Amino acid sequence: MHKAWWQGKVAYQIYPRSFKDSNGDGIGDLRGTIEKLPYIASLGVEILYLNPIFASPGADNGYDISDYRKINPQVGTLADLDELIARAKERGISIILDMVLSYTSCEHELFKRALLGRKAPERDFYYFVRGSNGRPPDNLRSFFGGSVWERVPGEEDLYYLHYFTKEQPELNWYNERLRERMSDLINWWLDRGIAGFRLDAIMNVVKDRTFPGLPPDELGDGSCAAARMNAKLAAQAPSLYQELKKHSYGPRGAFTVAEAFGLNDNLLDQFIGDEGCFSTVFDFTARETIEKNRPGYYAYPKGTLKIYRDGNFHMQQLTSPLGLVAPILENHDEPRAVSFYLEEGQQNAQGARALGTVFMFLRGIPFIYQGQELGLTNTHFDSIEEIDDVQSKNEYRNATAHGFTKEQALAILNVHSRDHARTPLPWDDSPHAGFTTGRPWLKLHQDALSLNVAAQEQDPGSVLNYYRALVALRKRGAWQECFCSGDFIPGSTADDHVMHYLRKGAGKCAEIVGNFSTKERVFELSGEGRILLCSIPEARVEGRRLTLGATGAAVVEILPGRSS
Ligand code: BGC
Fold first, then answer.
1. Which of 229, 233, 230 shows the shortest CA–CA distance to 215?
2. How far apart are CA 305 and CA 303, in angstroms?
3. 327-358 pLDDT, tens digit each
4. pLDDT value for 219
């Protein structure tokens, strides 16, 4: 594999609205992010991914973009972003932006002009399709529930297509002029010093333009999830992205990470690796195990370590011969991993350290999500009024429509809501945990006054300081290459409470072992070893045996010449 500038790096994702507010309006902003750059740098991360910061009416917290070349005034200005890029660069950090190219906001100029009529030059940039007898063109269901079709105001039987909220009309990627505009946009941002992009919802661009619909799925209302259509047409996606790559980020050497939900395994070789469409793709296998073929949060199981482990092991092995994947524990669309994947007695700092260990040494480009490095757990929401997220609100309605009481529906959100990841980052024990001097846009975590950055800075044994050690080890000398692109060999999966794997490359070899059971365990190693890092004191290696206490993880170097 060709060695690109971003290989071997660890990335950090921030949700700018919830990271740090500098002006007291209760919403995190770019100046707050600039202020906290020393903190970000102290983690050892070298790529900083920002969730959308563009002009947006806010139907889906910034994912509905009305101008891709302007910054949302709540978040800052272009000058702020330029400063962030420059200051981050001084600290060896590259900024990547969230690029949402499969839909725009309905407030975007192009959509407004497309609405002007059939002859408008922008009409074909979107999908306007006739229904029949008061019914929409097909039975596909939006990712957020309800039909993917919205009636065009003032026109009989005419609809436009949207896969998320009705304020997010889908773009027609089969239009060549539109694709040219996208390349121009990407190049414009690269010229400004942006190092790359997270490309949003990449599997959604493919469409069957005859809009035939699909057989009804398990929701039982005659509709079918739009994701099923994506899966059917997925093979069309690579050529569309190859063209974008050729005209924009490819020749510029930019880093791209794709949000590729529902990615078919057999297409992976076209998405990653030197010749692939992107530098890497997020690994959502564990998430997909939760969501797959289930009609909504109310039917989702809670996560388990086994689900996390099996998903990652599958993707690690699949991608190893092809390129690099981007492992995650959590992101802005998922609940906190410590609450979600661990059992009740483990949803604490000790559990967070153990989980962080088995995550950090996976092959590829790991992304840490803000607050993960503090071991944040889910926030407790006391009422539906405390929830902001559009998807969570839909899921609440969905649950009550399927017979759950309001209390039960709220309990479901307390497990699955995306808002768990979006509550403001707690910085210290001052009012509003130092996030803002105003009124925070979303409630703070119930333990924010004790579970915060300042408290953990003081404590050498904190999750925060442990994460720093994890990142430092990942980047230490030849280990960097070993952990990024070396071999991945799964250990035994016989015990659902164990995650054990081996990494080998660049003359190094390590075994990563997580014991998530409630008892001390003894593990046979592949050779004699020594502990490089462990999440609990109760860990020792004698010859080829590792003894590890409950809810603990260790990274063991297998000494050269002593492996079998
Ligand atoms: C983003 C979500 C967002 C969705 C629709 C996704 O790819 O990660 O946060 O809700 O796009 O806008």
1. 229
2. 7
3. 999 999 999 999 999 999 999 999 999 999 99
4. 84
Of 259, 373, 388, 511, which is the active-site residue?
259
| Residue written as token pair 């109310």 | 298
**Pairwise CA distance, residues 26 & 14, whole Å:** 16
Retrieve residue 461's tokens: 């044994």
- 349-360 and 463-474 helices, crossing angle to 10°: 10
Task: Judge whether 200 counts as a catalytic residue.
Answer: yes
Report CA-CA distances (Å) from 8 to 89, 197, 478, 538, 550: 17, 17, 10, 30, 31
Write phi, then psi, for 69 (nearest 5 degrees).
-110, 10
- Whether 220 has a pLDDT exceeding 90, the answer reads no
Which helix (H) or strand (E) covers residue 415, if one does? helix 406-416
The letter for the amino acid at 395 is E
Q: Which residue among 164, 257, 418 has the greatest number of ligand 1 atoms within 8 angstroms of its CB, and so is best to mutate?
A: 164
Q: Is the CB of 200 under 6 A from ligand 1?
A: yes
Q: Quick one: pLDDT at residue 244?
A: 98
60 lines ligand 1 (CB under 6 A): yes
Res. 293: pLDDT tops 90: no
* Averaged pLDDT for residues 528-557: 97
Residue spans of beta strands (DSSP E) within 15-141: 47-50, 54-55, 67-71, 94-99, 128-130, 140-141
pLDDT at 547 over 90: yes
Contact 59, 105 (CB under 8 A): yes
Per-residue pLDDT tens over the stretch 143-157 = 999 999 999 998 889
390-401 and 406-416 helices cross at what angle (nearest 10)? 140
